[in-house]
Every structure is written in C-alpha cells, then in structure tokens.
Amino acid sequence: MGIKLRKAVLSDAENIAKIHVDSWEVAFEGLMPENYIKGYTLSARIKEWEETIQTNAEFVVVAESASTVVGFMSYRVHPDAPEIIELSKLYLCPTHYG
C-alpha cells in the first residue's frame, strides 16, 4: 500500500477539513484551552478549504492511501522571491501516523 500525492480538487475540501480538525484536536489536546481548539469547527474548515482551493490562494496537495485522503499540505510561492516556497500547512490523519 503506497502513498500517492496529487493536486487537491474542490471535492477534497471536506476530507481535508476533517483531517485538519481531527489533527488539531489530537495535537493540541492539553496544550491549549479546549474551547479554543473546539472553535475550529468542521463547517468552518470546509469553508476555508473550499475557498483556498477555488481561489488558488495556496497550492494544496493531498496524500492518498488506497484512494482515501490521509493527509495534505499547502504552500505558496514567496511574493518577493519566486524561487522560494513557504510551507503553510502539513497535516496527516491521526490514524496514519505514529
């Protein structure tokens, strides 16, 4: 079972958002106030990722395993130095990392 990377499409937004929310909760549990962590809802993240993908605000790449999205990253080209990219986000589904 390998990992395939591909450019995200609009229909990936919900899966990306779910991974984003789930990873956030697992990573920051006990480190940040619970109400702050829970403030990042699935519906808010879906909107965020739909907009990001539709507007190309960042380049978004998903990682798939067995045709299931298990992670994602987003990056952008530095506005003043086109030879530099800035990694914005890198998340894996909590069930796929150890």
Summarize the structure.
It is built from three helices and four strands.
Description:
With 98 residues, this protein is an alpha+beta fold. Helices cover 36% and strands 31% of the residues. It has helices spanning 13-28, 34-38, 42-55, and strands at 3-7, 59-65, 68-77, 85-92. It has a 4-stranded antiparallel β-sheet, with helices on one face. Helix 1 (13-28) packs across helix 3. The longest helix is centred in the N-terminal third of the chain and has 16 residues, at 13-28. The two termini are 17 Å apart. The relative contact order is 0.22. The mean pLDDT is 92.
Order of SSEs, N→C?
Answer: EHHHEEE
Lateral arrangement of strands in the main beta sheet: 1-2-3-4
Measured on Cα atoms, how large is the radius of gyration?
14 Å
How helix-rich are the residues, as a percent range? 25-40%
What is the average per-residue confidence, as pLDDT, rounded to a whole number? 92
Q: How would the global form be characterised?
A: globular
Assembly type of the shown chains? single chain
**Residue windows where pLDDT falls under 50 for at least 5 positions:** none
Number of helices: 3
Q: What are its keywords?
A:
single chain, 98 residues, alpha+beta, 4-stranded antiparallel β-sheet, 3 helices, globular
Write the layout of secondary structure elements.
Elements: E1 3-7, H1 13-28, H2 34-38, H3 42-55, E2 59-65, E3 68-77, E4 85-92
Helix pairs in contact: 1-3
